[in-house]
Structure formats: structure tokens, C-alpha cells
Amino acid sequence: MCLSIPAKIVSIDGDMAEVSVGGSLFKAGLHMISDAKIGDYILLHAGFAIQKISEQEAAETLEILREMDDALNKEP
Amino acid sequence: MSGNITLNHGEGGRRTHELIRDVFMKKFGMVEPLTDSAILEGSLVFTTDAYVVDPLFFPGGNIGKLAVCGTVNDLAVSGALPEYIACSFIIEEGFPVNDLLVIVDSMAEAAENAGVRIVAGDTKVVGKGKCDKMFITTSGTGMLDVAKKYISTGERIKPGDRLIINGSLGNHAIAVLGARKQLSFTTPVSSDCAPLNHMIGEVLNNCNGVLFMRDLTRGGLGGVLNELSEIMGNGIVINESSIPVDEPVRGVCEILGFDPLYLANEGKVLIVSSKGMENQILDLLRQDPLGKDSAIIGEVTADKGGKVIIETASGGRRIIDMPSGVQLPRIC
Amino acid sequence: MKYIDEYRDKGLIAKLADMITASVRRDYTFMEVCGGHTAAIHRFGIPYLLPENIKLISGPGCPVCVTGTDFIDTAIAYSQIDDVIITTFGDLIRVPGSESSLEKMNESGSDVRIVFSGLDALEIAKQNPQKKVIFLGIGFETTAPATAVTIKQAEKENVGNFFLLSAHKVMPPAMETIVKDGTSLDGFICPGHVAAVTGSAIFDFLPEKYNTACVVTGFEPADLLQAILMLVKQVNSNNPEVEIQYNRAVTVNGNQEARQYLNEVFEYCNARWRGFGLIEDSGLKLAGKYERFNAGSFATVEVSIHEEDRRCICPEILRGLKEPGDCPIFAKSCFPENPVGACMVSPEGACNAWYKYKVSR
């Protein structure tokens, strides 16, 4: 129920989009997302996009994780 | 047992096994272990299956192709050479003849590909609403080298023996689900419905390391692994990263909350290989188009508790239990 | 698959687990309050990766589990009205009511259909103008906006036969009740998808008033482990605050459009939570302007209050006071095919997750 999966917008028709998860296509309502574009990743939940996924933040998280590990390894 | 039969009883999980044990086996005097096919008089193998798939037509096949391949595979996984098929049709009044022709053509084609002959049959037509379009029951016979009986019973399996499957999981279930058009998704996935007897035959003819086989239909890999561990009394450990699952199948599973381990397949077999012979079996499987994605997925452990454990792709561990509840009704 | 596989990388997970082990100085108890987290923690085998002194407990995060039996009984009563179609998320279909379940009602002639979206339910209403279609609205702040959009769409398209039975709830009041009532915990693994909608600021009161560490967490194994590491560090430095681990989807203020839909269509009301009784302002009901969409506007049904099965300890499990293993009937007479309590029926319930996934160390 809380299932919310990152899905990629492949087409938009008015308020509705078709989004891809691994190549399978689902319908998603875009009512809660402003300026959605084809190629954006959104969180799909109960047939709606509830938030956009920030590519930049995602990249930063992974970078921080790698840095944390390096810092740990350097500690005496 | 009392009360009424529910959809749960047909799912291939715990309830189905209870029904089979407490009603059918008891009343018919059948003995454990129950195998995919019955081995009679030492070398005659005999099996039967009913097909109630909804919808009748799906990407990769239809109920007819399923009916032939499913029964051929039940025979093949006991190590037998499948030979003859009988099929009976229950058809709802008003069923289009054109659809029947397509289904029957598929059956003829499947039989030819498998190298079996359809030699007997029956047809019943029932009034409108008395059956959902069409149900098919097939029975099949084949010949087994009596020395290979252990392949059905699993009596030679020991700790350390390896587990192999011939390709990706869940394609049939997801293809059928997509064809129902009830759940607002479309998927490029096709059913893996296919006769496995040639591929299996090549392995058995060139290698004597096969200790056990079972096809992964209702209840999926999770169901079969639990059945196997119950038969042996040993535990099993499998490795999630080594289990092939196609991306579009993963996508549907993530969104709709299915576990690929429990989804039905119609062209997949679990092979238990004697330790040390798994690579040879893998090579033989991969030479066949139906086995090109074969993988070694785990092994039998010395753990007498009989649990099936999966090492997750991220390094954690959890139990895989017998499938419970109705994952997807009328999937085959 | 992008945004999933990178966070399941075995090497990364192993490193994070090591970092957690290196950071622990005492015992810690962290509670998650989201069914998605319950399922993810057990599906990925997270407890197996953590050192012994970190205990993860499950709270009232499963919307199906915290919904009282009276909601199911009400839905069942509606399903028995002649021209009614009940539309529901799949999770509700097998939850036991006092005497039956929606699945059993469907088997005996009622029209109960599983949908994955409120929009699917609306479509069913449009295709069946002579029937009354009732949508069972269940879920927290992640899902309620979706229902709100559906209601606005029904209004826009003038669909007169679409109705809502709402059991929607909001998380913060329940989280406050848990800490106030003395469940012993050091921090919350805060629900990432609730926060994607509401923003992380809704949890600010927890460290401020109650000194509870809070990390807003994603759903992949790397997210969970990174969040647990962040919680451990907060507790170690005695510096509780609300941190966002799941920053690829969560901001302080959340999704404004979603919140606008929620605030326009719904109002807060008191709501009954299984295991907690009445919690003030923790439920969502339709605002006055949208009252005609209430199922009650075309018919009222009577349900009687039944006593819960006394052997079932779901209430204590939902409060984090006991674990499924503590329940006398767990895996003995209560299991997924024959559930006594809601925690066993829902794939997000603690008992269901334990039953399916737990490996004892």
C-alpha cells in the first residue's frame, strides 16, 4: 500500500502520463506535479505521481555515502 | 476437512497440499511422495492436469499450447520420454469456432514440437454460463528408464548438491495478468510456455548428475523449494542475485507487490545436480534456446530444520515460506 | 532499475553495516511507523545486518492494521445493498471483519472489485451509471491526496454515483501518542513517502518536545542503513533533530500541490486506531463542500461493536510494546491464510512480515 516506486515518464496526455518501470507501463495522474516532462522520474503511488525524484539529490546521497566510508577508513 | 472449498485450495500452496493429502491421497490410497507424474509398473509414467487459464489467449500462447506443454513437462521432469497425450474439452455454449480452431492448431503445433502424439480425447458442451468459455484437461504417458526413478523422489539428494533453473522467473504469470487488462498496465512480457523435454533429454543423455527435477508452475520457485525441503528434510539456501528475473517482470512485481519467487512459470524447471556436476549440466542446458539463461541458484544444506533461506541481493538473509494466500487465481 | 538498484548494491550495504557496527556505544531502540518500511526491513533482511544492540520495532504504520473492525463491517454492510459496487485496494480484501470479510462477501454474491487507483474506481462509476460505486479510502498522507484528486475529478466530471468511505489517517498524532504513553524508544525511522507529500517539518515537534531522534527514510536497503547510522549518531551526540536521509524525494515543505488537494477536500477529525482507541485530529473526513461524496449521503448502515478476539495482541504490537513472536497464537492458529488479526493479513503488517521473512539468528 505504501508502495511507491520510481518510474520514468514516457508520454504525457493532459493530466495523465504513461510511466515505465523496467519496461512495463503504468498510468499515472500528474495532477500533483507541476511541469512534469518526459524523461523525469516520479514516485508512483496508487495510480498517481506524488513527487518528482531529484537526480541531483540522488547523486549527492551516493557521493556522501562514499565519502563517509573513506573518512571512516582514514580514522586512526 | 470441513466447510467449503475456497480459491485458496487451488493456489498450489499450503491449503492445496492439505486438500490433496487429507482428501484425495487418503481416499484413493495414494502414497507419499507425490510426484509430478505417477510411475507405474516400473517404467510407465502417467500424469494429468487441468487448464483453466483466464484469459484463454495471452502473449506467448493460449490455453491449448499450455495444455500440451504443461503435461509434456510433467512427464519430462520425471526423467521420462513423453509419448502420448489425451485431451478433453469442456466448452461453453456460444464459444466461437474460429477461436477453437486457433487453440487446436496451437495444440497440434505444440505436440509436433514436443514430438508427442495426441491420440485420444473427449468433448463436452455445457450451457451458457456453466463454464467460463473453455476448460481443457490433458493426460499424458511416457516411458521411463526404471533406474532413473530417483529423479522423481529425490532420494539421492545430499547436502552440498546444487540447484539450477533454466531461466527467468514470472514471465508466464505477468503475461497472463497483463492480458487480463484489469490492472491498468501493459507489459512487453510473453509467457515462457514451451515443451522442455528435448532440453531435458539432452542433459539426461549426456550426464548422470541429475538427482531431481520439478517444473515451476503454480506456487513458483518458492513453492517447489519448500516441497523439496519437506521431501528431503534438509534446508536449502539460494542466492537472490543469481536468480534471473526480466526487468519488465521486476517492474510489475515492484509496483503491484508480487514476489517473483512465487509466480507461475510454464517453461521452467528446477534441477538438483550432484555436487561437482553442476557446470556440466549448466553447459548442456545453455546449448538449448529454452535454457540460455540457466543459472546455478543455490544448494542443499546439512541443516536438518528444513528451512528455505534466501541470501538477498543486498547481503541480508530471510526465510522463503510456502506460498500462502491467493497470489493470482487462474494463472494456468 | 534506476533509483532502485544503486541502493541495493551489496558492497555499499556491507560498508554501511560496518559503519553502523563501528558507531554503536550502547543499546538503541528505533521504531518505524510505515508499513512500507516494515515490509522492506524484513524483505531485505536488514535485522540480520545490524549489531545486536540495535532493536527495530514496528509501530502503527500499516493503514490496514490500524483500521478498526467497524470500518470493514461498514463496508461489508454497504456491499450487501443491491446496486452497490465496492471498490478497494487489494490489501483490504481479506481483512477479517467481525463475521466476514470483503473477499467472502464477493464469493457470496456482493460486487467487490480490487482497484489500484481511485481513478480506476471513478472509471467503474462512469461505466456503471445505474450502480452506486463506493471507494474505500484507506492510507495515510501518502494516499489521501490521491483520493482528494479523485474526488475533485469526480466533481469536475459531474459523476453522481461515486462515493467515498474514508478511513484515511495522519501519522504525527499517533507518533505523539506513542512517545507520550511511554513506549520506550530512542528514535523514529520516519515515513519517507508520507514526508514526500507533507514535508519533513511535520516531525519537528518530536525532537523539540520529546527529545526523540528522527530521520526521514527511503525504502531501499541503503536508505534504511544510512538512516539507522544517522539515528545512532544523533543518539550518541544527544542531539535529536529531524534529518532527511531520503532527500531525493523529500524536502522540508513537501509537495505543495498535493497538500493543497488534501487541505481543500479533507478536514481533520477524531479517529479510532486499533490498539490506541480514539486519537484526536488524527483522521481525515470530507470537508463540508464535498459531503455529498460520503457513502452515508445515500444510505446509512448500522454496525454493532464487537469485541476483538482476546488472544490477538495486535493492539500491543501496533504500539511497539510486544513483538509478533510474543503472541500466543502467532503461527499457531494465526497465519496469512487464516488470519485472526489485521497485522497478519496485510503484507505491511508486522506479523505478516515476521511470518514470511524472519530468520532467527
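The longest helix of chain B spans residues 97-114.
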